[in-house]
Amino acid sequence: MGNKKKPSTNLNTPDQGSTKKSVDLDKYFRDTVKVLGTGLDDSQTAPSSPHGSSPQSPAGSELSSDPRMADIKEILQNLPSKNDIAAMLAKLESSMQDQISSLTSDIRQVNNGVGDLEEDRDLEEDRDQILDRILSLERNQENRDTKLMYIMRNTEDLDNRSRRNNVRIRGKGGIMQSTDITQSEDKFITLRDIITDKVIIPLKNLTGSTNATMTQIFQYHQLKHFLNKEGLLHWKPREDTQFEKLCSRPPTNKTIAKCYHMIQESVNNQLPWYTIKNQKWFSTQIEEQTWLTIFTKMMKSHSSIMLQEINYKFLTQWYIVPINAHKFNIINSPLCWRCEKKQGTYQHIWWTCKRIEGFWREVARFTEQLSNVP
């Protein structure tokens, strides 16, 4: 015994239920009627009911005559259809997708910016670490330089102490190794020993062995290149000089004294080059004996080495005068730096300049007073 379905109320039957239903609908659409208004005329009749009731029927006439029902029908006709709602939803969905895409792009840019900031932070940390490392290396380098200078000073001091009483001009000291091809066990090898018929002898004859080291081979080619470049293969044999003979002897004591004695005893028939230049300045011919007297007085006139050196520099024209400096660089003025009027030659700078003549007059007067020589 199930529940029976109530029969639907026929709108064409003018009973009390239809009137009650209309009253109930008014309760739900009261606000809508107020908004839209009820100014519909009688010509705007509602469409026929699905039951085919006409306006002439009592029920149809009752519904059509009710203005609220007409407003409801108007509202129902103006409601959007399913397609309209689907189109609006599609449009809303598209707009939401665009917004989501824009937000996704913004989020991606923010992530990229955050990544860049993190990389910059890492780079800053790496840079600080590198700077600290550089400063540490610089401090270590300064410490090493200080220690190296200390070691070098001590080494030089010890080396000088060990050699100050023993000056060697021959031997295998320094960087020269025992495998040097220019030395034998008892003497140095000379050009006379290595050149035969204008050709350098083979390397095996120099070393006495067929198994030469790389150093000996390199030195042999160096020597061969030097002899060819300087044309020494055409050198004519001559007698050894006294200095060469001294070098070929075993090391002896007082080597420097022997060298000085050898220089003093040497005879040179040619005057130095600066004597000719001085003769041109004074426009006179100076005899060799006069030059010998000048050299002797220059060496023995003072016990001070500094004053002897100054005299030697004057005699040899060691100083650079303005005219020579102008030849080195045209920016330098060739005029005398005292008077700035005449050419700054050696003779003018030291003797004939007006600003220095008074000084030499005072020197001459003072010398006359001391020596009583008029």
Write the layout of secondary structure elements.
Blueprint: H1 16-28, H2 30-36, H3 58-65, H4 67-78, H5 82-163, H6 191-194, E1 195-196, E2 199-200, H7 203-207, H8 214-230, H9 242-248, H10 255-265, H11 273-282, H12 288-300, H13 305-316, H14 322-328, H15 346-352, H16 354-371
Antiparallel strand pairs: 1-2
Helix pairs in contact: 15-16
Structure description:
The protein is an all-alpha fold and 374 residues long. Among the domains are: 16-78, no CATH class; 191-265, no CATH class; 273-371, no CATH class. It is built from 16 helices and 2 strands. The protein has a two-stranded antiparallel sheet. Helix 15 crosses helix 16. The longest helix is centred in the N-terminal third of the chain and has 82 residues, at 82-163. The protein starts with 15 loop residues before the first helix and ends with a helix.
Notable characteristics:
374 residues, two-stranded antiparallel ribbon, single chain, 16 helices, mainly alpha
